[in-house]
Amino acid sequence: MGGAPTPLQAQGVVIPPGMTVPNYLVFAILATVLCCIPTGIVAIVYAAQVNGKLQAGDIAGAQLASKNAKMWCWVSFGLGLAITAISLLLVMAGVISGLHQH
Amino acid sequence: MADVRNRWFIVAMLGAIAAAAVVLRIFDPATAGLFPPCPVRYLTGWYCPGCGSLRAIHQLLHGNLQAAWALNPLTVVLLPFLAYGLASHALYEIRGRGLPGVFLSARFIQGLGVVILLFGVLRNLPLYPFRLLAPGLMLP
Q: Structure pTM?
């Protein structure tokens, strides 16, 4: 699955030593499964794009995709928190209305 | 390269994971009623790809691989890789160098996304081999 900072091994491309372009794949998968599926999938697509652009030697493109992957991970996290809070409120409201039925 | 803000993020993340592991080891999400229900399950009645993952991790922390597998096989398969990736990320922020990793092709990552989505769809199907993917149905 690879540590998030993707090692640069793109074929035939000269890449400054020590430079990495993180694809945030680990966070994208966690965001998909734990937070919000649609936006998490967007993050996974951008994570794939990071490695795809690196393979093609497009470092600037990879860096842009990396930024987008990170952003969509945070969007998923925020949405996940919001949706969990709302559904918790609904659970509590359900519990309360259930109590009133007696 | 690793700035202070990122370092605090990593410390907070590792602390949260450790705390979650302790809580998940002590309390069983299946019975404790302490954990919020999965919003997808609660609002739509469908299982999401992550449904059963907290219960599965609880079982893993007690060494019950079979029970964990029955609750969420995807979690059992992905967890070691996710843990390695998170550890690599943490080390990268701390010392500027992660753990050795393989370069995943774009196709492979896209495939992974498809597998996660497919797992989420299949475990909701009421057909015989697929319905076993719903949380807990593989247990006798």
A: 0.80
